């Protein structure tokens, strides 16, 4: 095992110092409203990449450019960028009116008191069917924003409930990239890993629902909850939700929503053809920052990996955690650390797989349990990091609809990742293991 170079992790520290430093200063010292939202995250990553570029003089600048380009040449990164842009088109096409129609329709058939509970449950089902948390958040966050505006529930709670539900499905879905990466890396069947995972995720989801219900009953519903809505405008959202539950490809689902939205918005006289094109452009533009973050993170992490920063992390974790139960926690923190560094849970699992497999052999941990640990902990950390794709796309979707919110307003309401962490620790340290001695 290579010791690596701990100094290679300096760019990550620079980013955190920049982002958190300015955010705390703006929000709590200067008392600027939405202080964290005003921190230029692109500039923070540019500063981090600059630091990475001036490190390791043994590698020429041209070679560093090639390394960064190699970091972008990944299917998951390209897929993520395309989802971002396609989602921007969808938001631009359907706009605020469609989202509000969905919200008012939901509130007309269920008590307003349970609207946030419904958001969480719908996000769980859709993300499990689609296998993508980003796609789920893209589709349902506009509805969450409209529900918040209509019912009086706080926007952070509504958005966080959608994010939590999205991470539930990302963790359990058979077609999720994280599931595929974890199972292939550890050599176990998906259904075996699902069984392990379900025992952790389901209790966390139930407790999350209870917390949301308690908050719902303690929330005063203000203003007019029921309002006029256009059922025709709900069709694009119904199509994407049905497509998601049916398990169709996220791109097919989004394109279906876009085409149906264009037809409906145009032929019902809600918007002119020129206005529709303008909105599409605005929707795509709203995702540019999110796309750029994904690109810069990938480039930065490619340099960190090349310099030995990830090797240093792997080496340190293996030296610290000894014993079977501690080894399981070490695996979780390993992939969590990778996720913090890469802001991509699939990439984190791929990177952690080799050392996790070696740790599993040393500690006597089954492949299905190892795969479950890697997937679960990667989803825990991915669901809470303020610069992760899930958080960024949620903020972008809300912003496109004319609202504003910061990651640090959402974080305290992310009950599901918190409960998933608690459930994972109970599962590791308190639940007796089955002694069947067999691994299927």
From TrEMBL:
Belongs to the NhaC Na(+)/H(+) (TC 2.A.35) antiporter family. Its main location: membrane. This is Na+/H+ antiporter NhaC family protein. Keywords: Antiport, Cell membrane, Membrane, Transmembrane, Transmembrane helix, Transport. The chain crosses the membrane at residues 6-29, 36-57, 77-95, 102-130, 136-159, 198-217, 237-255, 262-281, 287-308, 329-352, 414-431. Residues 42-214, 245-398 form the Na+/H+ antiporter NhaC-like C-terminal domain. The keyword Cell membrane applies. Pfam families: Na_H_antiporter (PF03553). It is a multi-pass membrane protein. It is found in: Cell membrane.
């Amino acid at each position: 095992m290579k010791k690596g170079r701990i100094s290679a992790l300096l760019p990550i520290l620079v980013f955190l110092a920049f982002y958190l430093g300015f955010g705390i200063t703006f929000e709590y010292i200067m008392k600027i409203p939405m202080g964290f939202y005003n921190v230029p995250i692109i500039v923070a990553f540019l500063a981090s990449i600059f630091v990475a570029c001036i490190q390791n003089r043994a590698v020429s600048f041209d070679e560093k450019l090639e390394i960064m380009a190699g970091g972008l040449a990944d299917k998951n990164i390209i897929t993520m960028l395309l989802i971002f842009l396609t989602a921007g088109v969808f938001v631009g096409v359907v706009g605020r009116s469609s989202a509000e129609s969905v919200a008012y329709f939901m509130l007309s058939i269920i008590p307003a008191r349970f609207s946030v509970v419904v958001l969480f449950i719908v996000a769980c089902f859709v993300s499990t069917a689609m296998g993508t948390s980003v796609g789920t958040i893209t589709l349902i966050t506009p509805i969450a924003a409209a529900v918040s505006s209509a019912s009086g529930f706080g926007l952070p709670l509504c958005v966080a409930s959608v994010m939590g539900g999205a991470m539930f499905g990302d963790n359990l879905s058979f077609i999720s990239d994280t599931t595929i990466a974890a199972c292939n890396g550890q050599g176990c069947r998906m259904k075996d890993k699902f069984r392990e995972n379900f025992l952790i995720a389901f209790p966390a989801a139930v407790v999350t629902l209870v917390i949301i219900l308690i908050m719902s009953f303690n929330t005063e519903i203000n203003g007019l909850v029921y309002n006029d809505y256009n059922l025709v405008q709900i069709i694009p959202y119904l199509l994407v939700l049905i497509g998601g539950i049916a398990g169709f490809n996220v791109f097919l689902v989004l394109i279906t929503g876009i085409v149906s939205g264009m037809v409906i918005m145009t032929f019902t006289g809600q918007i002119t053809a020129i206005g529709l094109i303008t909105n599409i452009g605005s929707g795509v533009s709203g995702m540019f920052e999110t796309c750029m973050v994904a690109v810069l993170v990938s480039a930065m992490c490619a340099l960190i990996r090349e310099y030995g920063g990830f090797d240093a992390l792997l080496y340190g974790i293996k030296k610290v955690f000894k014993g079977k139960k501690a080894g399981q926690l070490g695996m979780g923190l390993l992939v969590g650390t990778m996720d913090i560094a890469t802001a991509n849970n699939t990439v984190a699992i791929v990177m952690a797989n080799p050392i996790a497999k070696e740790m599993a052999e040393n500690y006597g941990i089954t492949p299905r349990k190892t795969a479950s640990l890697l997937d679960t902990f990667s989803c825990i950390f991915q669901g809470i990091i303020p610069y992760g794709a899930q958080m960024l796309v949620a903020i972008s979707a809300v912003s496109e609809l004319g609202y504003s919110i910061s990651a640090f307003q959402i974080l305290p309401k992310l009950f599901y990742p918190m409960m998933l962490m608690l459930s994972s620790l109970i599962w590791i340290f308190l639940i007796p293991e089955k002694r069947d001695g067999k691994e299927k």
